Amino acid sequence: MDPVTKQDGVDENAARAPSETRAGLSVVEPPGAPAPAPARAAALPVASSLDARFLTLAGTLGDLVSLHETERGCVYASAVAREMLGAEPAELVGRDWAELVPPEDENPFAATEAKRISHRLLRPYGPPLVAETTVRPVEESGALVQLLCVTRGFDAGGWELPDTLRDRLTGLPTREVLVDRLTSLLARGSMPVAAIVIDLDHLAAVNARFGRDAGDRVLAETASRLQAMLRPTDLLGRLEDERLCAICIGVGQYQVALRIAERVRAVVAGPLPFEPIIATASVGAALGAPGSDPEALLSMASKAAQAVQRRGGNAAELHGASGFPSA
Q: Which CATH number do you get for residue 44?
């Protein structure tokens, strides 16, 4: 693992949000914050109508700038999200960033007052990002309409999965990484987790008819498609042979897990760029209660996938898990 690095060279004043008011809009400064730059700074957006000057300023910062609303979640994230979290900004918009914050940490994206909060942010690979977020409520006519957040990461971009923990064919994390992530998540005590096992149907027949290279291409293409559809906080890995597994954080309801499993099945069954091969998958899902055994969770999801495969494949099934409601 590379040493932890801190982002340097970012001007503190530049990272602070502009403070001018517009149409009754006011920004509450956090305690102890120095006086903001005068009127040349870009005006803040009002209720998600993003000002061009604000976007220009946010795009020049080394810190992650984001806007959040109670009903809509994140409405803007700057391009630094790619380096800091390994996620495209578009993937983060429309989501509640509470799912990125470990449950034992204070969630800055739900704050109601100006403050600075030290916390972590979950990423698909590697340890959580150690971060500090400065929160400034944006008010209009005395009512809170948005939260303006400036997040500084202290080890962004400095960690990559070692080659020894990455599958050589798909580039995905190995089974060891999947078990390690599950162990960490289930030990926290309050974060529900779903394991989605994807068992490719008839891959042995593809290998026999078209050659091993064809089967490898199907597996690699499947891995690429699934990575594109999953959330940045989800972890996709190669469990064994033709079997992949996605670890989905914050999924604690049967219907939600089954819906994800069905989406996975549909993505795998989409037309391949190399005909005449057609790929389908037997998808099994299981819910893991906090404190449960990671190997048992993987076994339950695998058994659900095997049950689907015995019936002909190309379907999704959920294995029941105790501790969670079915609705």
A: 3.30.450.20
